[in-house]
Protein backbone atom coordinates (compact mmCIF):
# COMPACT_ATOMS: atom_id res chain seq x y z
CA UNK A 1 0.00 0.00 0.00
CA UNK A 2 1.44 3.42 -0.98
CA UNK A 3 1.83 6.23 1.53
CA UNK A 4 -0.90 8.22 -0.19
CA UNK A 5 -3.33 5.30 -0.14
CA UNK A 6 -2.54 4.60 3.49
CA UNK A 7 -3.14 8.26 4.41
CA UNK A 8 -6.50 8.25 2.64
CA UNK A 9 -7.48 5.02 4.38
CA UNK A 10 -6.54 6.49 7.76
CA UNK A 11 -8.52 9.65 7.06
CA UNK A 12 -11.55 7.60 6.03
CA UNK A 13 -11.24 5.48 9.17
CA UNK A 14 -11.14 8.58 11.38
CA UNK A 15 -14.19 10.00 9.62
CA UNK A 16 -16.10 6.75 10.08
CA UNK A 17 -15.17 6.46 13.75
CA UNK A 18 -16.18 10.07 14.36
CA UNK A 19 -19.47 9.59 12.49
CA UNK A 20 -20.25 6.47 14.55
CA UNK A 21 -19.25 8.34 17.73
CA UNK A 22 -16.76 5.65 18.73
CA UNK A 23 -14.69 7.91 20.94
CA UNK A 24 -12.39 5.30 22.44
CA UNK A 25 -11.58 3.76 19.07
CA UNK A 26 -11.00 7.20 17.59
CA UNK A 27 -8.49 8.09 20.29
CA UNK A 28 -6.84 4.74 20.90
CA UNK A 29 -6.81 2.87 17.58
CA UNK A 30 -3.30 4.05 16.70
CA UNK A 31 -1.60 3.39 20.10
CA UNK A 32 -3.28 -0.01 20.30
CA UNK A 33 -2.24 -0.83 16.73
CA UNK A 34 1.36 -0.15 17.69
CA UNK A 35 1.01 -2.30 20.82
CA UNK A 36 -0.62 -5.04 18.74
CA UNK A 37 2.27 -5.03 16.26
CA UNK A 38 4.88 -5.26 19.01
CA UNK A 39 3.03 -8.04 20.85
CA UNK A 40 2.07 -9.87 17.65
CA UNK A 41 -1.67 -9.82 18.34
CA UNK A 42 -3.91 -11.32 15.71
CA UNK A 43 -6.57 -9.01 14.18
CA UNK A 44 -9.32 -10.42 16.39
CA UNK A 45 -7.37 -9.66 19.58
CA UNK A 46 -6.76 -6.09 18.39
CA UNK A 47 -10.43 -5.60 17.54
CA UNK A 48 -11.47 -7.13 20.88
CA UNK A 49 -9.30 -4.63 22.80
CA UNK A 50 -10.81 -1.74 20.87
CA UNK A 51 -14.35 -3.00 21.51
CA UNK A 52 -13.61 -3.61 25.20
CA UNK A 53 -12.33 -0.07 25.63
CA UNK A 54 -15.32 1.39 23.81
CA UNK A 55 -17.77 -0.53 25.99
CA UNK A 56 -15.97 0.53 29.19
CA UNK A 57 -16.02 4.19 28.13
CA UNK A 58 -19.72 4.09 27.28
CA UNK A 59 -20.57 2.41 30.56
CA UNK A 60 -18.66 5.05 32.50
CA UNK A 61 -20.37 7.85 30.59
CA UNK A 62 -23.73 6.22 31.24
CA UNK A 63 -23.00 6.07 34.97
CA UNK A 64 -21.93 9.71 35.05
CA UNK A 65 -25.06 10.71 33.13
CA UNK A 66 -27.30 8.89 35.63
CA UNK A 67 -25.47 10.52 38.54
CA UNK A 68 -25.94 13.96 36.98
CA UNK A 69 -29.63 13.30 36.32
CA UNK A 70 -30.13 12.15 39.92
CA UNK A 71 -29.28 15.67 41.17
CA UNK A 72 -27.62 14.57 44.39
CA UNK A 73 -26.77 17.47 46.68
CA UNK A 74 -23.44 15.71 47.33
CA UNK A 75 -22.17 12.20 46.59
CA UNK A 76 -22.13 9.86 49.59
CA UNK A 77 -21.18 6.18 49.82
CA UNK A 78 -21.87 3.44 52.34
CA UNK A 79 -18.12 3.15 52.99
CA UNK A 80 -18.09 6.75 54.25
CA UNK A 81 -20.79 6.17 56.86
CA UNK A 82 -19.70 6.41 60.51
CA UNK A 83 -21.32 3.34 62.05
CA UNK A 84 -20.06 4.06 65.55
CA UNK A 85 -21.79 7.41 65.86
CA UNK A 86 -25.52 6.52 65.99
CA UNK A 87 -26.70 5.20 69.34
CA UNK A 88 -29.00 2.74 67.59
CA UNK A 89 -28.88 1.47 64.01
CA UNK A 90 -29.39 -1.97 62.50
CA UNK A 91 -26.20 -2.25 60.48
CA UNK A 92 -27.07 -5.60 58.89
CA UNK A 93 -30.47 -4.29 57.82
CA UNK A 94 -28.88 -1.26 56.17
CA UNK A 95 -26.14 -3.27 54.46
CA UNK A 96 -28.75 -5.68 53.12
CA UNK A 97 -30.53 -2.76 51.44
CA UNK A 98 -27.46 -2.19 49.29
CA UNK A 99 -28.16 -5.45 47.49
CA UNK A 100 -30.91 -3.27 45.91
CA UNK A 101 -33.55 -5.99 46.08
CA UNK A 102 -36.01 -3.33 47.25
CA UNK A 103 -35.52 -1.56 43.95
CA UNK A 104 -36.27 -4.49 41.67
CA UNK A 105 -39.18 -5.51 43.93
CA UNK A 106 -40.50 -1.92 43.86
CA UNK A 107 -40.56 -1.63 47.65
CA UNK A 108 -40.01 1.50 49.70
CA UNK A 109 -37.34 2.39 52.25
CA UNK A 110 -37.94 4.87 55.06
CA UNK A 111 -35.18 6.25 57.28
CA UNK A 112 -36.51 7.70 60.54
CA UNK A 113 -34.43 9.63 63.05
CA UNK A 114 -33.58 13.01 64.51
CA UNK A 115 -31.46 15.61 62.76
CA UNK A 116 -27.88 14.68 61.89
CA UNK A 117 -27.91 10.91 62.47
CA UNK A 118 -27.10 10.01 58.85
CA UNK A 119 -30.49 9.52 57.19
CA UNK A 120 -29.68 11.65 54.14
CA UNK A 121 -26.21 10.10 53.90
CA UNK A 122 -27.63 6.58 53.67
CA UNK A 123 -30.45 7.59 51.30
CA UNK A 124 -27.95 9.30 49.00
CA UNK A 125 -25.58 6.34 49.17
CA UNK A 126 -28.45 4.02 48.17
CA UNK A 127 -29.24 6.24 45.22
CA UNK A 128 -25.58 6.42 44.20
CA UNK A 129 -25.28 2.63 44.39
CA UNK A 130 -28.37 2.34 42.19
CA UNK A 131 -26.80 4.67 39.61
CA UNK A 132 -23.67 2.51 39.52
CA UNK A 133 -25.85 -0.55 38.91
CA UNK A 134 -27.62 1.00 35.92
CA UNK A 135 -30.81 2.36 37.51
CA UNK A 136 -32.32 5.82 37.12
CA UNK A 137 -32.57 7.90 40.29
CA UNK A 138 -34.07 11.26 41.30
CA UNK A 139 -33.01 12.93 44.55
CA UNK A 140 -35.03 15.83 45.91
CA UNK A 141 -36.48 17.21 49.12
CA UNK A 142 -40.16 16.83 49.93
CA UNK A 143 -40.64 20.59 50.00
CA UNK A 144 -38.94 20.99 46.62
CA UNK A 145 -41.35 18.45 45.14
CA UNK A 146 -44.34 20.30 46.57
CA UNK A 147 -43.12 23.69 45.35
CA UNK A 148 -42.26 22.34 41.89
CA UNK A 149 -45.60 20.61 41.44
CA UNK A 150 -47.56 23.59 42.76
CA UNK A 151 -45.81 25.87 40.25
CA UNK A 152 -46.45 23.35 37.47
CA UNK A 153 -50.11 23.14 38.43
CA UNK A 154 -50.48 26.92 38.22
CA UNK A 155 -48.78 26.88 34.81
CA UNK A 156 -50.99 24.07 33.52
CA UNK A 157 -48.06 21.65 33.29
CA UNK A 158 -48.82 19.32 36.19
CA UNK A 159 -48.90 16.09 34.16
CA UNK A 160 -45.31 16.28 32.80
CA UNK A 161 -44.09 17.46 36.22
CA UNK A 162 -45.68 14.43 37.88
CA UNK A 163 -44.15 12.19 35.21
CA UNK A 164 -40.65 13.44 36.05
CA UNK A 165 -41.11 12.05 39.57
CA UNK A 166 -42.94 8.90 38.51
CA UNK A 167 -40.46 7.76 35.87
CA UNK A 168 -37.16 7.11 37.78
CA UNK A 169 -36.57 3.63 39.16
CA UNK A 170 -35.80 5.21 42.55
CA UNK A 171 -37.27 8.44 43.91
CA UNK A 172 -35.55 9.81 47.01
CA UNK A 173 -37.65 12.25 49.07
CA UNK A 174 -35.40 13.86 51.65
CA UNK A 175 -36.41 15.81 54.76
CA UNK A 176 -40.10 14.94 54.91
CA UNK A 177 -41.45 16.55 58.05
CA UNK A 178 -38.90 19.32 58.51
CA UNK A 179 -41.43 21.86 57.22
CA UNK A 180 -45.25 21.66 57.28
CA UNK A 181 -47.10 20.99 54.01
CA UNK A 182 -50.45 22.60 53.26
CA UNK A 183 -53.46 20.74 51.88
CA UNK A 184 -52.60 21.46 48.25
CA UNK A 185 -49.02 20.29 48.76
CA UNK A 186 -50.19 17.19 50.57
CA UNK A 187 -52.56 16.33 47.72
CA UNK A 188 -49.75 16.74 45.18
CA UNK A 189 -47.33 14.61 47.19
CA UNK A 190 -50.03 11.98 47.57
CA UNK A 191 -50.35 11.83 43.78
CA UNK A 192 -46.65 11.02 43.48
CA UNK A 193 -46.79 8.27 46.09
CA UNK A 194 -50.02 6.88 44.66
CA UNK A 195 -48.66 6.76 41.10
CA UNK A 196 -45.48 5.04 42.23
CA UNK A 197 -47.31 2.48 44.38
CA UNK A 198 -46.07 -0.96 43.26
CA UNK A 199 -44.56 0.74 40.20
CA UNK A 200 -41.32 2.17 41.54
CA UNK A 201 -39.27 2.36 44.74
CA UNK A 202 -39.35 5.39 47.03
CA UNK A 203 -36.70 6.23 49.63
CA UNK A 204 -37.82 8.71 52.30
CA UNK A 205 -35.99 10.37 55.17
CA UNK A 206 -38.00 11.91 57.99
CA UNK A 207 -37.45 13.25 61.49
CA UNK A 208 -41.02 12.34 62.47
CA UNK A 209 -42.35 8.96 63.57
CA UNK A 210 -45.39 7.76 61.64
CA UNK A 211 -47.93 8.62 64.33
CA UNK A 212 -46.92 12.29 63.97
CA UNK A 213 -47.18 12.46 60.18
CA UNK A 214 -50.65 14.02 60.27
CA UNK A 215 -48.94 17.12 61.69
CA UNK A 216 -46.83 17.28 58.53
CA UNK A 217 -49.88 17.20 56.27
CA UNK A 218 -51.96 20.01 57.73
CA UNK A 219 -53.49 17.66 60.36
CA UNK A 220 -55.41 15.85 57.63
CA UNK A 221 -55.80 12.42 59.21
CA UNK A 222 -57.69 10.95 56.25
CA UNK A 223 -55.09 11.92 53.65
CA UNK A 224 -52.23 10.91 55.95
CA UNK A 225 -53.80 7.50 56.52
CA UNK A 226 -54.25 6.95 52.77
CA UNK A 227 -50.66 8.05 52.10
CA UNK A 228 -49.18 5.78 54.78
CA UNK A 229 -51.33 2.89 53.60
CA UNK A 230 -49.72 3.00 50.15
CA UNK A 231 -46.27 3.90 51.38
CA UNK A 232 -45.97 1.22 54.08
CA UNK A 233 -47.69 -1.68 52.30
CA UNK A 234 -44.36 -2.70 50.75
CA UNK A 235 -41.76 -0.91 52.84
CA UNK A 236 -38.78 -1.34 55.11
CA UNK A 237 -38.26 1.12 57.95
CA UNK A 238 -34.84 1.87 59.40
CA UNK A 239 -34.82 3.64 62.77
CA UNK A 240 -31.68 5.59 63.62
CA UNK A 241 -31.22 7.04 67.09
CA UNK A 242 -28.49 9.29 68.40
CA UNK A 243 -27.18 12.83 68.46
CA UNK A 244 -26.33 14.97 65.45
CA UNK A 245 -22.99 14.07 63.89
CA UNK A 246 -22.67 17.67 62.71
CA UNK A 247 -22.60 18.68 66.38
CA UNK A 248 -19.95 16.05 67.15
CA UNK A 249 -17.13 18.49 67.98
CA UNK A 250 -19.29 20.54 70.35
CA UNK A 251 -20.68 17.43 72.05
CA UNK A 252 -17.22 15.95 72.61
CA UNK A 253 -15.61 19.22 73.76
The helix-and-strand class reads: alpha/beta
Give the strand order of the largest sheet, numbering strands 1, 2, ... along the chain: 2-3-4-1-5
Order of helices and strands: HHHHHEHEHHEHEHHEH
**What is the beta-strand fraction?**
5-15%
Q: Average pLDDT, to the nearest integer?
A: 91
What is the helix tally?
A: 12
Number of domains in the coordinates? 2
What CATH architecture of the largest domain do you see? 3-Layer(aba) Sandwich
Low-confidence stretches: 249-253
Briefly characterize the structure:
The protein is α/β, with parallel strands linked by helices.
How would you characterize this protein structure?
It contains twelve helices and five strands. The chain has two domains: 3-69; 78-252, 3-Layer(aba) Sandwich (Rossmann fold). Helices cover 57% and strands 12% of the residues. The protein is elongated. Mean pLDDT is 91; it is low at 249-253. By secondary structure, it is of the alpha/beta class. α3 packs antiparallel against α6 (119-132) and α7 packs across α9. α9 links the parallel β3 and β4. Keywords: ATP-binding, Nucleotide-binding. Belongs to the IS21/IS1162 putative ATP-binding protein family. Residues 105-239 form the AAA+ ATPase domain. Pfam families: IstB_IS21.
List keywords for this structure.
12% strand; alpha/beta; 12 helices; Rossmann fold; five-stranded parallel β-sheet
Mind sketching the topology for me?
Elements: H1 3-19, H2 23-39, H3 43-70, H4 91-97, H5 101-104, E1 108-113, H6 119-132, E2 137-141, H7 142-154, H8 158-166, E3 170-176, H9 183-196, E4 201-206, H10 213-216, H11 221-233, E5 235-240, H12 248-252
Parallel strand pairs: 1-4, 1-5, 2-3, 3-4
Helix pairs in contact: 2-3, 3-6, 7-8, 7-9, 9-11
Amino acid sequence: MTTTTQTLSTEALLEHLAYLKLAFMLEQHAPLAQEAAQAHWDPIAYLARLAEGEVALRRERSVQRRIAQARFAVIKTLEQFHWTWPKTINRLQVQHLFRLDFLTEKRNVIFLGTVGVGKTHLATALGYAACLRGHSVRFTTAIEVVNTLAAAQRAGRLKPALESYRKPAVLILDELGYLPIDRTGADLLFQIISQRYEQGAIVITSNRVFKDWAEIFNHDATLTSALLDRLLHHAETILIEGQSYRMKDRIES
